[in-house]
Amino acid sequence: MPKGVPWHGKTVYTGVYKQTVAGPRMVRRLNIDGDGQGDLGGHGGEQRAVLVYQLDSYRFWVNELGRDDLTPGNFGENFTVDGLPDDEVCIGDRYRIGDALFEVTQPRVTCYRVGLRMGEPQMAALLVAHHRPGFYLRVIEEGEVEAGQKIVKVSTGPEAMTVEEIDRVLYLPGHTREQVERALRIPALSPGWQGSMRTLLDQADGEGGASSGSAGLNTAATAPPPAWPGFRPLTVTHIQSESRSVFSLHLAAADGSALPAALPGQFLTVKVQPEGDVPPLIRSYSLSGEPGTGTYRISVKVEPHGAASNELRAHIHVGDHLEAAAPRGTFCLTGGDNPVVLLSAGVGVTPVLAMLHALAHDRSTRQVWWLHGARDGSEHPFAQESRDLIATLPKARSTVYYSRPAADDHLGVDYAEAGRLSAEPVRRLGLPTDADAYLCGPTAFMDSLTSALVDCGLDTSRVNTESAERELLSVSWLRLGKDPWSRVGGVALRRRGGRTSRVRVR
Q1: What CA–CA distance (Å, rounded) separates 269 from 267?
Q2: CB 196 within 8 A of CB 217
Q3: DSSP at 253
Q4: Using CA atoms, how far apart are residues 468 and 449, in angstroms rounded to an integer?
Q5: Where is 360: in which H helix or E strand?
Q6: CA atoms of 463 and 486, how far apart (whole Å)
Q7: Would you say the C-alpha torsion 226, 286, 489, 84 has a positive or negative sign?
Q8: Rg of the chain's alpha carbons, rounded to an integer?
């Protein structure tokens, strides 16, 4: 079951620490009895009920990493299997194990927790680079499963597209339109991956059929269709400093027409073209302005080694054009009369600020809780703007936390409490249990506060999260072929002989 695990001075709530069990276990639609996931936004649910990893991959990593301590469960899987390699198992394949029937839905999308479990920080990137992700199963028929039972293949998925092939299509360059269209003809493919495949088609249409392999345009199947295919030029009309490290770009249609309305909480994907003959950097930034104005505002945090953010700050000017895809994303404010809790840290304020704008624009009478954490006043973007919006809402309340207030920051004016916005202060607030909560910030922040909200009585289905680390996660992909360098998940890999050396990149 999930538990808190120390990591980089923080506590991560995770169920990645699996242990072998004896005897039968009941496999249900959403989980196996006695098992759980800490990050329900990235793991678990009907489409990702059971994670599978192969003994052959264990043997590969023993040799590749020089490890002799790998045991079943080290990769966070539920089933450690002999056979079922990623380059043979197809999306939509059905297998019977014991009394249960399963269907393959998608490759595993790796996250940092597998590196935490393995003690190998780059493990998530290496799983992609070496084409050994493992895969998820959906439970078609519930039943008991026990170690040692045979795996019986019942049917092959339509299109016979393997886990490895579809993983390559999404994450590496060189895919064809025919491959993407084949993937979309597989009914068993999870909605999230279907959305990503549709985005690849949109991207290819906007680039004359080119296949960049960018995963930065991922959008779930429940999102509204994009307002335009591919990329179009938008004109920078204004540049505004919001804090010491955050600035905003105001964008308008090049022809002066009104831009399609975005949903509050969505993001914009842009191409940032560095100098020289190099591929563009593709990054996604949350829309932070008032929806429905006919223009867009994106807000960018300048990371010390952020290639795109530093390029934008140094070289973008009013009047310049920026290639942008249509607004996307399912982290959106939903309607209703129940309370709304908006929680953010740092630049994570941007999508929830758009939600606050929408509530103020509608003169909402819903209870609104605005909770934000910053280092100090100099790192508090949109401080006055958010205060002005809250003042227009009759049932809104705000609590701002500064972890290290500066001498010129005033308690009761600039911030309400000294310290971090963390689980313990949230538990003391007495939040309404019927609220819809929206969290955006670093992953550890969201994990901790999600647990706190559930402890406060909110149902997990009402807790919505969005990472504020999109620039670090959206990367450019290069071939591992003649060019020996490849960027994978923020890690540069270089092949020399049979070995791979690594260096961290952003």
Answers
A1: 7
A2: yes
A3: E
A4: 14
A5: helix 349-361
A6: 36
A7: negative
A8: 23
pTM listed for this prediction: 0.55
Closest CA to 141 of 28, 15, 45, 43: 28
CA gap 440, 21 in Å, rounded: 36
Q: What residues contact residue 154 under an 8 Å CB cut-off, 6+ apart?
A: 94, 95, 96, 101
Q: Which residues lie closer than 8 Å to 407 by C-beta, 6 or more apart?
A: none
Task: Name the token pair of 96.
Answer: 């019977």
CA-based nearest residue to 438, from 422, 427, 453: 453
**Range 55-62, long-range pairs (CB < 8 A, 24+ positions):** 55/80, 55/81, 55/82, 56/82, 56/83, 56/85, 57/85, 57/86, 57/132, 57/134, 60/130, 60/132, 61/132
Among 328, 343, 338, 329, which residue's Cα sits nearest to residue 438? 343
Q: How confident is the model at residue 469 (pLDDT cuts 50, 70, 90)?
A: low
At residue 151, the 3 state secondary structure works out as strand
- Tell me the residue length of the chain: 506
**Confidence class for position 39, pLDDT limits 50, 70, 90:** low
pLDDT, residue 467, reads 67
